[in-house]
Amino acid sequence: MSENKHVLSILVDNQPGVLSRIVGLFSGRGYNIESLCVAETVEPHTSRLTIVTIADIVAIEQISKQLNKLINVIKVNELTGEDFVQREMALIKIKAKPEYRAEILRIVDIFRCKVVDVGPEHYTVEVTGDEGKLKAIIDILKPMGIKEIARTGSIALFRES
Amino acid sequence: MKQLTGAQILMKTLIDEGVETIFGYPGGAVIDIYDELVKTKIKHILVRHEQAAVHAADAYSRAKGKTGVCLVTSGPGATNTVTGIASAYMDSIPMVVITGQVPTQLIGNDAFQEVDIVGITRPCTKHNYLVKSTDDLAQIIKEAFYIAASGRPGPVLIDIPKNVANGLATYKAPKEIKMRSYNPTYKPNMKQLQKVVDLIRDAKRPMVFAGGGAILSGASKELTQFVKKTKMPITTSLMGLGVYPGDDPLSLGMLGMHGTYRANMSTGKCDLMIAIGVRFDDRVTGKTDVFASQAKIVHIDIDPTSIRKNVPVTIPIVGDCNETLIHLNKLIMDADLGNLTQKRKTWLDQIADWKSTTPLAYKQTKNVIKPQYVVEKIYELTKGDAIITTEVGQNQMWAAQYYHFKKPNHFITSGGLGVMGFGLPAAIGAQIACPNKTVIDIAGDGSIQMNIQELATAVQFNLPVKIAILNNRYLGMVRQWQELFYDKRYASTEMVHAPDFVKLAEAFGAEGLRATKPEEVETVLKKGLASKKTVIMEFIVDREESVYPMVPAGAAITDMLLV
Ligand SMILES: Cc1ncc(C[n+]2csc(CCOP(=O)(O)OP(=O)(O)O)c2C)c(N)n1
Ligand SMILES: [Mg+2]
User: Fold this and answer.
1) Which residues of chain A make contact with B311, given a CB cutoff of 8 A?
2) Which of A26, B227, B514, B561 is disulfide-compatible with B538, CB 3.0–4.6 A?
3) Domains in chain A, start-ordered, CATH in brackets?
4) Residue B476 C-alpha to ligand 2 middle, in angstroms?
């Protein structure tokens, strides 16, 4: 069976240990986590996790059910196949030698990102977008020398009609 | 308002939950709790090892149909419970385990006897809590009992720091439990059920496969009615033994690696399998690709994760087994299923044929006791009415095969985890739950030594539990695998030294009996069963007897090695 990327959006009761239960479920049952994002929602005591995982259709059904079975999990939505918006942010610290500085700024402009920190030897660029966009800009900047990179992992929500 | 200590609040809440018995072992972190416990009417069973407290609570729960309760201290007390908790988790037994913890201000400091038991037990409890304030205690305890017994039951652990137990709070009666994140589905989807009726009507070779979930939901009566009405043969998992009378003609006996020939063959030939409260464990299915490959499978279970986890299912039904069967029985009453006697004849004849040509069998001998013979005799002498607990290994399988359980909750075994050392503490728990029942631990010589210290508990509380040791001086089940699949290299399975079990029993203040020849078996059993004391009955059995049928691990369940 073929394995695909799946985006899971999980609402949880914000109890101590809830993240550990979820992460433990993935490691204990041999599922993998590509990325994981978690923060509070507007509702009190409620957080949303977005987990990207790679699994076949049988496994993803089990993963969703197993997550739902955890006492502190309120709701699990699998977004794949649905209409949803997905974003990720990255901070990319790039070597900015004089001969590349203009080129970098041009790329930043094309990708509609921002330079958030400047030094004599580097730029730090903030980029937001879906996975494809992040991959594209990283590929383009790589030859100029990426010093460090920090990514948030994906967050996602359904589109409402 | 009057202030109570955490320990007092705990007692009040436990009494309100209807707790009558606690299995436990004290220590520094729970000394305040014990100081209150002793002032209540709750009976405390002081075990000799915390693992035994959990197994005893497990069996108590099954025999009594109530949530079992354990109380142990922090650190080693808590870690000693882990095997018991994991076993109860796999067998879905409702239980609340209360552990002491170092004071909150010391947590994280590697304090004396500090261990993160909530972290350790996260993957083997249904849920667990660290109580951070005395104010939260009552509500958490109520919630823990609710979670343990509802939905698919399981163990819940509550870790109570010492300062929470001896700290003060104003007692407020806990609120009714309503959780936005936990709402088990009890009621089945009626449309799905109607489809099941159609499948039953159209099936030529249907069968029922019931398991521990059916027992846990109290579905035995409805299930029996369902089976009788639809005239479907029924097999059970190890955990399901007794949910349907094992001596009834429609009973196929147990399914699986050591299942009966007719049960295993039926799964290969059936065209409809109605699975109720089972989870299609690998010991039951064998090779899953060819399991029940001609059949449409209907799977009824309260836990959605059990469905389609191991085998594909035609009709999934999430719901309580008993409630689902009540609805199903109503639909069946109104349905026209045709002349079932006629419809089922070929199929039931085939099954009868399997039974007569290839029954459960062993070769009786004159001079050596066969372990199966001992179990058969126990069955005969107790008229199939005893509560049987088991250890793990061959003893467990022979108990399952040769004791034909007629009622649910009479076979108490560590099914999912297979814990050696389960049987004796389980017998203690079952005997406390049912003081007037005959309770027998069918044991192996290896397993019994894993919790043998509990003889002291049994004697202290005057429990007339009986321990029948099938002594083959081997870790027999492992030896059997070595014989069959490892060229008879008996690596570390011969028990070259064992205690004299008769003297051992006497040393603990119990009674010890021994049979070495077939003709002594009945005498020893009669004497042991008649005794009011804790009794060890040791049977020196054929050393290299094996359990048959046997399906090698990973083979098709219909590919059996026979005697
Ligand atoms: C705690 C634990 N350790 C190891 C095992 C593996 N094991 C399964 S059966 C068995 C042999 C049991 O020997 P005995 O109690 O003498 O029973 P017999 O099979 O001889 O009847 C062993 C070692 C286990 N199930 N549980
Ligand atoms: Mg043995």
Assistant:
1) none
2) B514
3) 4-82 (3.30.70.260), 86-158 (3.30.70.1150)
4) 5
